[in-house]
Design brief:
The protein has 745 residues and is mainly α. Among the domains are: 129 residues, Alpha Horseshoe (Serine Threonine Protein Phosphatase 5, Tetratricopeptide repeat), CATH 1.25.40; 221 residues, Alpha Horseshoe (Serine Threonine Protein Phosphatase 5, Tetratricopeptide repeat). Helix content is 73%, strand content 0%. The protein has 38 helices and no strands. Helix 10 runs antiparallel to helix 11. The longest helix is centred in the middle third of the chain and has 31 residues. It starts with 26 loop residues before the first helix and ends in a 14-residue tail after the last helix.
Length: 745
């Protein structure tokens, strides 16, 4: 039987003021103020609109903070949720950024395009879409998006990205014109901007333009940091052997400005090594190794120069150091081939043939993965090093996917304050929406919103109480337990919640907790028959009948003139197995309120268990007069006739009516199948028993009867299979209901 719920009044909390003051009045605060006004005035429709707007903005801001922290998967989840509440260009663009930074480029493109459809004038969407295409090296598609940005909201980064896109598309004149226009926006000529342009020219294979830009930066400011370094690098990479001296001179000038610059020292050393000035090279390379001892390439070039000077012991030490560091650098493939080759040659020279040949074999294996000649291999190594330089000239305008993001401590602290503030706002708005749902009778939506509020702030004031009450009243007892138990821990004197929690534990089968929760009410339980029922039945389930019976006796005693209370007592006696007492009390219920639903049915059930089938028949008949569509009463009325072997036609009719009311009622079809089999109507019997078997596959008696029917139909294999199933079920420890239907309530 489904017990009726405890009838309590749910008190909705007033709209809470937010716990913290925001840093300033903004769009979010405007919606918060509007939501409060509408909810206080009872304008639920507008309150709902404003709370949804709050959620759209709040979730977006949380998502953006997660992007900033490098938590891309979480950010994507939150930003997708924000779109459910506020589908606009801003939210779609932020989601595109999340997908881009997690390298899901196609999804990023899809979201950026949706953003543009929503608002074609939203410059950030065009910029992100352009960046995505740039990341995919689809410069033709990137071009119109970045040009659109320059029309809508021109800024330095967008202009630089567009300039690099022009260069990739070999539109050099347009790039020059754009760079000149960017430079003209500054009050005075900027050497830093010339360096950025030079990097763009170098990475897109315009070395002469790059060299001019770096030289122009030096003309504006001869002591400009990095200008000599990048100039030296361009000359080293593209100038040929006859310009190695120029490259070296540029690196030396950089070192005059920044003597502890790793890259300047390394490239000065690499250039000197290439010119066979190995003593000079070693000086610079050793300094570079002191500055950053964790970089593998410096040990390779250092070892190479030491070999040339026949300092084989030092060379071996540095080459082995390079090998060790290269193991953790998947980008150092070309470098690793050269390191193993030089180490192998050195080992052969020092009469360690086996070890040397092993190193050469590794180098040969790596060589198969690359067809580059020695000179381009060195260029690759140098290019790989420059790519790690600050500013990443190879793709400076793209949004880079990173697994770890390094934030300044000050920003971390700031985010640590903003996120709880926003979480509180989100919890409030989800809670408000849930209250609105309840007032509109939208219970499933209310429960979903209460759960969402708890996800953001589980201890939000009033949340657990409201969530628990609504879950309980909706019959969602498993859901109700957690919020009700949390609330009771903080407010142990809330008797309403204690009653609901105790009943919820009973319904989910946690009987010990039900008893523990309801124990404080034990002395006054009989004033609440329904609660007494939950308590007593929980005791019975725990096999504590000795505690249960006195409480039941008292309940019965005080309820002799109260049909509703006595009903619970009678039902409890039945579960205890005291069928005489159960029948007696139910008859009293009937005398007090003759049309009480199920009272006659339970008398009949008790009498069946006392084997008084003739007496039970009258009570089931009376139950059907009260409720003709009660299929359980029909079945058990038929059962009283079956057990007495009387009125076969009426029995069949009752079973057929039962099946019409409940098609998959296995016990009724089983009994009908047995009767049909006894009448010799084998196929009809099989039809009924097969449906019974499908409805209740774990009832052994159905399988046994089905095996008999199959055997009479000469279906030996089917009969054997059904018999085997019967034997397996019989041997199992699983509790199986009897055809008497004693489990039915």
């Amino acid at each position: 039987m489904r017990f009726k719920f405890l009838l309590f009044i749910l008190l909705f909390s007033a709209l809470h003021l937010f716990a913290q003051n925001p840093p300033k009045t903004d769009e979010l605060q405007q919606h918060i103020s509007a939501a409060e006004t509408y909810q206080i005035s009872g304008d639920l429709d507008n309150a709902r609109i404003e709370n949804r707007a709050i959620l759209g903005i709040g979730l977006q801001r949380i998502g953006n903070l997660l992007l900033e922290e490098g938590k891309y998967a979480e950010a994507i989840k939150i930003l997708n949720k924000s779109i459910e509440y506020q589908d606009n260009a801003s939210n779609r663009t932020n989601l595109a950024v999340g997908y881009l930074r997690s390298n899901q480029l196609e999804k990023a493109i899809e979201e950026a395009r949706k953003a543009i459809v929503l608002d074609d004038k939203y410059a950030s969407a065009h910029y992100i879409l352009g960046n995505i295409y740039f990341t995919k090296e689809d410069y033709q598609s990137a071009l119109p998006e970045l040009e659109r940005v320059m029309v809508l909201a021109p800024d330095f980064e967008a202009a630089r990205a567009l300039g690099i896109t022009y260069l990739h598309l070999k539109q050099l004149d347009r790039a020059r014109l754009l760079f000149d226009e960017i430079q003209s926006t500054f009050k005075k000529e900027s050497p830093e901007v010339h360096i950025l342009f030079g990097q763009a020219f170098e990475q897109t294979n315009y070395p002469l333009e790059a060299e001019r830009s770096f030289k122009r930066a030096l003309a504006v400011n001869p002591k400009q940091i990095k200008a000599n370094f990048f100039l030296g690098y361009v000359i080293l990479q593209h100038g040929g052997s006859d310009r190695l001296g120029e490259a070296a001179a540029a690196f030396e000038k950089e070192l005059e400005i920044s003597p502890n610059d790793y890259f300047a020292n390394f490239f000065a050393g690499a250039g000197a090594s290439t010119e066979n000035k190995h003593q000079v090279a070693i000086k610079y390379l050793q300094k570079a190794a002191q500055i950053d001892p964790a970089r593998s390439e410096v040990y390779l070039f250092l070892g190479q120069s030491q070999i040339e000077l026949n300092d084989l012991g030092s060379a071996e030490k540095n080459l082995r150091k390079a090998v060790e560091l290269e193991k953790n650098d998947i980008k150092a493939k070309s470098q690793a081939r050269r390191t193993h080759f030089l180490l192998g040659r050195l080992l052969l020279r020092t009469n360690r043939k086996e070890e040397g040949e092993k190193e050469l074999a590794i180098a040969q294996q790596l060589q198969k993965q690359s067809l580059d000649n020695a000179r381009s291999e060195i260029n690759q190594i140098l290019g790989q090093v420059i790519a790690a330089q600050s500013g990443k000239p190879t793709d400076a305008n793209t949004i880079v996917s990173e697994e770890k993001v390094s934030l300044a401590q000050e920003r971390k602290t700031e985010i640590g304050k903003i996120k709880p503030y926003l979480a509180n706002i989100l919890a409030q708005s989800f809670h408000n929406l849930a209250v609105i749902n309840v007032q509109k009778g939208q219970i499933p939506e209310a429960l979903e919103n209460f759960a969402s509020a708890s996800n953001w702030k589980f201890d939000f004031p009033g949340l657990d109480r409201n969530w628990g009450i609504i879950s309980f009243r909706a019959g969602q007892f498993k859901t109700a337990v957690e919020p009700l138990s949390r609330h009771l821990k903080t407010t142990p004197n809330d008797n309403l919640i204690r009653q609901m929690l105790g009943a919820s534990y009973h319904f989910v089968g946690e009987y010990a907790k039900s008893v523990e929760t309801l124990k404080p009410f034990e002395s006054i339980l009989t004033t609440n028959a329904e609660l007494t029922y939950f308590y007593v039945i929980s005791l019975v389930q725990l096999k504590r009948n000795g505690e249960a019976i006195p409480i039941l006796n008292k309940l019965s005693e005080v309820s002799q003139t109260n049909a509703e209370s006595l009903f619970y007592a009678a039902q409890s006696f039945m579960i205890l197995g005291d069928y005489e007492r159960s029948a007696k009390e139910f008859k009293t219920v009937i005398a007090l309120a003759p049309n009480t639903p199920k009272a006659n049915y339970y008398v009949g059930q008790s009498l069946i268990r006392l084997n008084r089938f003739d007496q039970a028949e009258a009570f089931f008949t009376r139950e059907l007069e009260i409720n003709p569509s009660d299929y359980l009463a029909k079945y058990h009325l038929a059962l009283t006739l079956i057990e007495r072997k009387v009125e076969l036609e009426k029995t069949v009719s009752l079973l057929e009516e039962t099946i019409n009311l409940k098609y998959d009622y296995g016990d009724a079809r089983y009994q009908l199948g047995k009767i049909l089999l006894e009448k010799g109507e084998v196929q009809k019997a099989i039809d009924q028993l097969e449906i019974a078997s499908n409805s209740d596959p774990n009832k052994d008696f159905i399988q046994y009867q089905l095996s008999i029917a199959y055997r009479r139909a000469a279906r030996k294999e089917d009969a054997d299979r059904a018999l085997k199933r019967y034997q397996d079920l019989k041997a199992s420890t699983r509790k199986v209901d009897s055809p008497m239907g004693n489990n039915e309530e």
